[in-house]
Each structure stands twice: as structure tokens, then as C-alpha cells.
Design brief:
Layout lengths: L6 H9 L44 H15 L3 H14 L5 H12 L3 H13 L5 H8 L12 H28 L6 E5 L4 E5 L3 H21 L19 E5 L2 H12 L8 E4 L4 E4 L4 H19 L5 H9 L4 E2 L13 H6 L2 E2 L3 H12 L5 H5 L3 H5 L3 H17 L3 H11 L7 H7 L12 H13 L14 E2 L4 E2 L6 E3 L4 H7 L6 E5 L2 E2 L3 H8 L7 E8 L2 E8 L1 E2 L3
Parallel strand pairs: 2-3, 3-5
Antiparallel strand pairs: 1-2, 4-5, 6-7, 8-15, 9-10, 10-11, 11-12, 11-13, 13-14
The structure holds zinc ion.
The site of zinc ion (ZN) has 6 residues, from helix 10 and helix 11.
């Protein structure tokens, strides 16, 4: 117990942490973390397949050891698994995950004293998944050999304090990564979330609004399918989520360090085991990654690790939405939750991609997609798998089957971890056979996909016909920034280089895709109202669209 109170020492250890390779505590190989690629194939955003850090050369041995541990664990060779974890704990410098797993395995071997030591070590190294630890410490859990012991008591008692120390240490580490660039901070105690931002205060406000809207969409459309389990008794607080929004140059440095060669294609990611979200843009990527944070909060409380195809398809859903226009003069004005309930998820460039796969005959059968391991899902060509997963979620949502599917999955957990049977049940496919036959769903999904209109897509000629009379660039990360122009053009157009375009006709635009969507259906000569921002100031200006260059 005394060890747990050495918070100062703990904070010190955490600041020295190297970037970890996270595997899931004990059972599930699925949630071995996968950096999420959220970038679209826009003109200014490179695309490719996300790199898996566990396959980077210096970490290869660690990845092999994780694979070995999982196979030993599955065949119940706990002695060998304990040896592998001890080795992993030595080389993984600072991640508490191997020690946490070691404690679980030692319990299975009937060695509670050693298990208690391993659990203490995990906590000292910054293991913060207290809901998980608390659940495993309950009777029947992986750590039940420690139920009622001093270490279990300390976890229940010290969780809040420890989490605060861990949060402070992580914020300090991220600030250090920003290399002296000031980072402003908003702490949200209700959501147990801290936003750290290198952008202007106004952009930070916008990001906060974006997060609130994304949360409202989750509450309205997803949460009913994923009912949040109550806090365990004694309560184990949800880990703090850190949302880091660095400027483009700092993001590039960070991404190179995180994923090496895959950095250029990375739009952002959410790290499940440190609960850190990092995003390059303040629109679709931020929403996508934030949904991962919300989804992981559910999975952590429920003790579930949903398959990657589901995680990515679900979180990609929020990238493109249309909100109902709030009607002026309505009394009382609709709340954010009410507006979110009637917001719609839209086709986007991913739907276009899935449709092209269908046209070319390369669209995989749904059962083949669902049965892929996490590694295979994130392997090269993952953009196509993201495209199909998101399109399937959109199809389920539009046909009213998304929430029933999620409910089936959650209720049956862990007996059907791929989601195949839950999907069959929710969509009325014959599930008496093993494995369930999705042929009927494949047919309906393809028929639906074939009927989907092409979504406006930045950099895809033909999907829009009009454009702005000046160029914007999203690489700065803060939004669509007006590019340099001569003085005469500035006078004529009434816009200035460096201003950030935040809305067209009051519809928010955060990146090139959202701009394309806002201009869809308009033609050259149409007048639109632009909302522009420069540091704290915001103004509107009218402009005339010109013809798209083809
Ligand atoms: Zn993702």
C-alpha cells in the first residue's frame, strides 16, 4: 500500500515513458491498438495504409513476445505465459500492461503474493484502466485471488488520486513534445477530459463545440445500442481522456515519432491504453477519433473489446453528417440533443470508394471482412476495408438495424466476438447454421450501395461544379486557410491570406471534403456567404462562385 502513495515518484516515471506498444490486458487480441487513419483522399491529404507501430523494426521483438504470450495464454500454459510477460515487462520500459497481465496469470497459478507485487508494479508504471482492474478484482475476475486484499483496497481508495497524477504527468509530457510552442488547456471535469491545443483560442472554442456536437450525435444514435454499464462498486472512475490538437509542424514531428514511415498518411489517432487522442484537423478526424474515445469508455466499463471492423466503421460514421437548420424564432429553441437526434449521417468519399469497389468486383463479402484479424484489417489496403465498414454501418443505420445489431453484440459478449452472429440476427439472416449465412445481407447491402448517389469529394472532378474564387489549404490543421494572393485580388475579393474559412452559408466547413459538400449543387455565378476567422475576430463576406477547373 505504501508504494501506491508515492505519487511523486510515479509522476517522475511517467514523464520518462517511451512510446509504448499497447496490447490488451490478457484476453483480447482484437484491441491491440491500431493507429487509425482518418485522412481522406483529398488534394492536400496524402493517403495510404496506416503503419502498425508493432511492426516497426525496433519493436518487432516486443510484438513477437505479445503473440507468444497470447498463444500460451490461450492454451492455458500459464507458467510459460508468466515467463514471457516477465521478459516483456523488462524490455517494454514503462508500460504497465505486461505487469497487469502478469498479475492475472499469477492469480491463475495460485500465487497471490507475487500477483499483488505485479499489480503494484503495473500501477506504478501508469496502468490507469481502473474500471478493468476493479472488475478483474471482483469475485470471478482474473484477479480474484486478490479480492479483499490490501492492494485491492488501495486501488479502490487511491484510484482518483493516482489518475490525477497520471493525467498531470501525461499533460507535461505532451507539452514537452510541443517544443516550447504554447499549448492552451481546457479541463472538463464532467466529461473527464482535457483539451490541449496549439491553435488560436478561437479555434480551441470551435474544437470544443465540435466535440460537444459529436457527443450529442453519439448519445442520440449509438448510446441506446451500447447502454453504459453502471460504475462498479466501489466506483472506479473512468480514465481521463486527453484531446491533443497540436499545430501542423508539431503534429508532423509527433507522428514521425509515433508511427515512423506511416506518418505522412496519419490524420489522427486514439490510443486506448493511454486515452490520448491526437488529431490534425478540427473536423472529421477529430470527430472520428473522439467517437473512439467514447466507444472505448463503453468497452472499458463493460469489459468488452469489439472487433476492429466495427470500431472503425462506427467511428467513421460521424465524419460526415448533416444537421437540421435551427429554425429561428422557434420557442423554445431546440436543444443540441434534439438537433442531434434529427441529424443525418451522410454518404462521403468512403461510400464513393466502396461503390467503386463494387463496380470493379473487388468488394469483399461481409463475412470475409468480419472474420479478419485486427492485423489483417489494418494491413495494406485498409482504406478499402474502412470504406466498406463505414458503408455497412451507414446501411444498418438507415435501415434501423444499427442499434439492434449493437445490442445483440453486447448481450452475447464474449461468445461471439467477431460480431458475425449479432449481425445475422439483427438483419434477419438465418443464424441457425454455423457459421451464420450472410448471403442475403450481402445482396441487400450491395443493392443499397449501388443506389447511393456519388458524394461530393474534394479532388474528385465531376462531383462539384462550382468553387471559391480563391485557394484554400487545410495543411495548417486549423481549418481551410486562405492562401497568398496579390493585393488587387485581396481588394476585389474582400478576403485576406491567413484568414480561416469556417462556414459557407452558415454551414461549418472544417476541411476540403466539407467544403465540397457545402458547395455541392451550387453553380458558377451563385452568391454565397463566407464566415472567416482571424485569431479572435470573426466576420462574414459575400462572394461569387466560379466554375470548377476540370
Ligand atoms: Zn479509427
Amino acid at each position: 500500500v505504501s508504494k501506491l502513495s508515492t505519487l511523486a515518484a510515479l509522476a517522475f516515471i511517467l514523464t520518462a515513458l517511451a512510446i509504448e506498444v499497447y496490447a490488451s490486458p490478457v484476453k483480447p487480441p482484437q484491441s491491440a491498438q491500431a493507429p487509425a487513419l482518418s485522412g481522406g483522399p483529398g488534394t492536400t491529404r496524402a493517403v495510404g495504409s496506416p503503419a502498425d507501430p508493432s511492426s516497426q523494426p525496433p519493436l518487432a521483438t516486443e510484438a513477437e513476445l505479445w503473440a507468444r504470450f497470447l498463444s500460451e495464454y490461450r492454451r492455458e500454459d500459464y507458467r510459460a505465459a508468466a515467463d514471457t510477460l516477465t521478459h516483456l515487462a523488462e524490455i517494454s520500459k514503462g508500460s504497465g500492461v505486461p505487469s497487469f497481465n502478469l498479475a492475472c496469470v499469477l492469480c491463475r497459478l495460485g500465487e497471490p503474493a507475487k500477483a499483488a507485487d505485479a499489480l503494484r508494479e503495473a500501477l506504478e508504471l501508469g496502468f490507469v484502466d481502473f474500471p478493468r482492474a476493479t472488475r478483474e478484482l471482483a469475485p470471478g475476475g482474473e484477479l480474484s485471488c486478490l479480492t479483499g486484499t490490501d492492494v485491492a483496497f488501495a486501488i479502490a481508495k487511491g484510484a482518483q488520486e493516482l489518475q490525477q497524477a497520471v493525467l498531470d504527468a501525461r499533460l507535461k509530457r505532451l507539452r514537452a513534445l510541443a517544443k516550447g510552442e504554447p499549448q492552451s488547456q481546457i479541463r472538463d471535469d464532467d466529461r473527464r477530459m482535457v483539451i490541449l491545443s496549439g491553435h488560436s483560442p478561437r479555434a480551441l472554442d470551435d474544437a470544443r463545440v465540435e466535440l460537444e456536437r459529436a457527443e450529442a450525435l453519439w448519445k442520440a444514435h449509438i448510446a441506446p445500442g451500447l447502454p453504459m454499464p453502471a460504475q462498479p462498486v466501489p466506483p472506479a472512475p473512468d480514465p481521463w481522456v486527453i484531446v491533443w490538437l497540436p499545430k501542423a509542424d508539431v503534429f508532423a514531428l509527433w507522428a514521425r515519432r509515433e508511427v515512423g514511415p506511416g506518418a505522412a498518411t496519419l490524420g489522427g489517432l486514439y490510443r486506448p491504453h493511454t486515452h490520448e487522442l491526437v488529431a490534425r484537423d478540427l473536423g472529421p478526424t477529430l470527430r472520428h477519433e473522439f467517437w473512439h474515445a467514447l466507444h472505448h469508455r463503453f468497452m472499458s466499463r463493460a469489459g468488452q473489446d469489439h472487433p476492429l471492423w466495427l470500431q472503425e466503421g462506427l467511428c467513421a460514421l460521424v465524419e460526415d453528417t448533416t444537421w437540421p437548420a435551427s429554425v429561428a424564432g422557434t420557442d423554445p429553441a431546440p436543444t443540441l440533443d434534439e438537433l442531434a437526434a434529427s441529424a443525418r449521417f451522410e454518404n462521403n468519399w468512403r461510400t464513393n470508394m466502396a461503390r467503386r469497389m463494387l463496380d470493379r468486383g473487388t468488394l469483399p463479402k461481409l463475412s470475409a471482412l468480419i472474420e479478419l484479424s485486427s492485423d489483417r484489417f489494418m494491413d495494406s489496403g485498409s482504406l478499402g476495408r474502412y470504406a466498406v465498414s463505414r458503408s455497412l454501418m451507414l446501411y444498418l443505420h438507415q435501415t434501423g438495424k444499427l442499434q439492434p445489431f449493437l445490442q445483440e453484440l453486447v448481450t452475447a459478449w464474449p461468445s461471439e466476438p467477431t460480431g458475425l452472429r449479432a449481425l445475422a440476427r439483427a438483419t434477419g439472416q438465418p443464424d441457425g447454421v454455423n457459421p451464420p449465412n450472410l448471403a442475403g445481407l450481402d445482396r441487400d447491402f450491395r443493392a443499397w450501395l449501388r443506389k447511393q448517389p456519388e458524394a461530393p469529394e474534394a479532388g474528385q472532378p465531376g462531383t462539384t461544379s462550382a468553387r471559391l474564387p480563391f485557394d484554400v489549404d487545410e495543411r495548417g490543421g486549423e481549418g481551410l486557410t486562405v492562401l497568398d494572393m496579390d493585393a488587387a485580388s485581396m481588394l476585389k475579393l474582400g478576403v485576406a491570406p491567413g484568414e480561416v474559412l469556417v462556414a459557407v452559408d452558415a454551414r461549418p466547413v472544417r476541411d476540403a471534403h466539407e467544403l465540397a459538400a457545402a458547395l455541392a449543387g451550387k453553380k458558377a455565378g451563385d452568391r454565397v456567404e463566407l464566415t472567416l476567422r482571424k485569431s479572435r475576430a470573426q466576420r462574414t463576406v459575400k462572394t461569387t462562385l466560379i466554375a470548377e477547373r476540370h
